[in-house]
Amino acid sequence: MADKSDKQFQHFVPDFFLSGWQTTADRKPRRVWVYEKDSDPYHAAIKHTGGEENFYATKKSDGTTDIGTIEQFLSRGESRAGMVFAKIKNREQLNAKDRRDFAEFLGTLVRRSPFSLEKAKALVNKLLPGVIDPLVKIANRIDNEARRRRAVKNIEKVAAERKADPDSIAKLAIVQPSDIAEFVDKMDWAFFHCSTSKFVTSDNPFVYSIGLGIGDFENGHIIMPISSEVSFQARNSTEFNGGYYEISDDNVKEINMRIIGHAKSQVFACEQSEELKEIVRMKIASDLR
Question: What residues does 43 pair with on adjacent strands?
C-alpha cells in the first residue's frame, strides 16, 4: 500500500458504535458525554471522540509511515457489523452470517483498544529477545564467514528496528486472524434492554471475564452495550438463544459498573449525570488493576 503521511483522526471506538450514545447538547447534534476520573463531564463531537490522531500509524521497513492499512481493514469489518447493529436495534433475529460478522467485529474490537494495545506492546518488548536470540545462534552456524557476518548483521538490524518500534508490531497484530471470533460465535447470546435506565460504554468497551478466558465453558462471560438502549451478553452456560429480554434498573447499574471498571480512562454516555460522574471517579479502571 502506498505510504500516507497526512494526519488523520482514527477511532479506537468506532464512530458508528459511538452513535448509539449520540445526543444533542447546547444545540449541537451528534454529541456524546465524556466522563474522566478527575474532571467534570463534557460533551464532544462523535467524529472527534474515542480516538487519536494517527492512532493506527505504523512504520514500514523503508522508514515511511503508513496510516491506511489498518484503518482500511477495520473499515471493512465495521461496514459489515453496522448492518448487524441495525438489526439488533430493531430486535430482529440474527442469522448465521450476522452472528459471524458480529463476532468478528468483537474479536477485532477487543484488540484495537488503547488498553489492549498497551498490553500487546509490553508483550512484544518481553518476547522479542526470545525470538531474535535463536535466529542469531542459527546464523552463527553458517560456515562462510562473510555470509555469517551479513546474516547476523541483518538480524541485528531488524531487531534494533523492531525494538525501537514495538507499537507497530502490536498494532499490526490487529489485522491477524484470531480465535476470539470463533469462541464468541459458539457462545449463547442475549440482548438486554431497559425502558427506564441507560447503558454506558467506554474506551475499552468489550468486557470479558479476566482470568477465566473467553473459552471457559462454565464461567466465560462477555458483556458489551451496543447502544444506550441495548446491551449484548454472551455466555457458554445459558440458554437465551439470541433473544431480547427486558432487565431491571439494578441489572443496568451492574452492567454499567463493569463497563466503568474496565474503562482505561474514558466513559461515554448519552446524558450528563452527577451520579455517573461520582461512580466514574471512584470506579474507573478498577477492574484493570
Answer: 33
The burial class, CB within 10 Å (0-12 / 13-18 / 19+), for 97 is exposed
Q: What is the pLDDT of residues 37-71, one digit of tens each?
A: 999 999 999 999 999 999 999 888 777 889 999 99
Q: pTM for the whole thing?
A: 0.85
CB 236 within 8 A of CB 220: yes
Buried b / exposed e along 261-278 (16+ C-beta atoms within 10 A): bbbbebbbbbeebeebbe
- Residue 107's DSSP bridge partners are none
- How many Cβ atoms are within 10 Å of 32's Cβ, its own excluded? 25
Q: Would you say residue 131 has pLDDT above 50?
A: yes
Domain ranges (residues) in the chain? 9-112+179-288, 121-172
Rg (CA), the chain: 22
* Strands (DSSP E) found in 132-215: 188-193, 201-202, 207-208
> How far apart, in whole angstroms, are the C-alpha atoms of residue 66 and residue 15?
21
pLDDT, average across residues 11-38: 97
Mean pLDDT on 215-231? 84
Distances (CA, A) of 272 to 48, 139, 200, 250, 278: 19, 61, 11, 19, 12
| CA-wise closest residue to 250 among 177, 168, 194 | 194
Q: C-alpha grid cell for residue 151?
A: 546474516
One-letter amino acid for residue 139 of the chain: A
